[in-house]
Input
Amino acid sequence: MNVRAELARPGPAIVETDIPARLDRLPWGRFHTLVVAALGITWILDGLEVTLAGTVAGALKASPVLQFSNVDVGIAASAYLAGAVLGALFFGWLTDRLGRKKLFTITLFVYLAATAATAFSWSFWSFIIFRASRRASGSRSSMAFSPASGPPATTLPPARTSFSSP
Output
């Protein structure tokens, strides 16, 4: 291999395109409205889920099977948040390897299974594991914030992105 020949070879050509400018000139359409509405509804439902998770503390303490203490409720809430963080890191990494569509389906099924399993928890630790798994995989703030901000910002013309920004 000739080092001088490699160094003398010109670098990659710069490709100029007007595609971003053409996309920016597109008018606001029905598709954009549907994207913003769907992501907004998802964000609202995620907030509702978080609110409901906080209101079950009394039921967990009164449960004849689980009989949570105040400390147990606090640990359950912490596991819920830890699941969101760890799920965002793990499933974000996995999404890069497998793709969005495949991971959406996988996390949806894990979310549904973990939700059903949480309803049938038999002990403190089963509840913690199922609850953290549910939050890690499903519709959660760690995943809802980016989808609610990213797609509108990438599919809307720049003049309209302020409508979609949280």
Remarks:
- The radius of gyration is 23 Å.
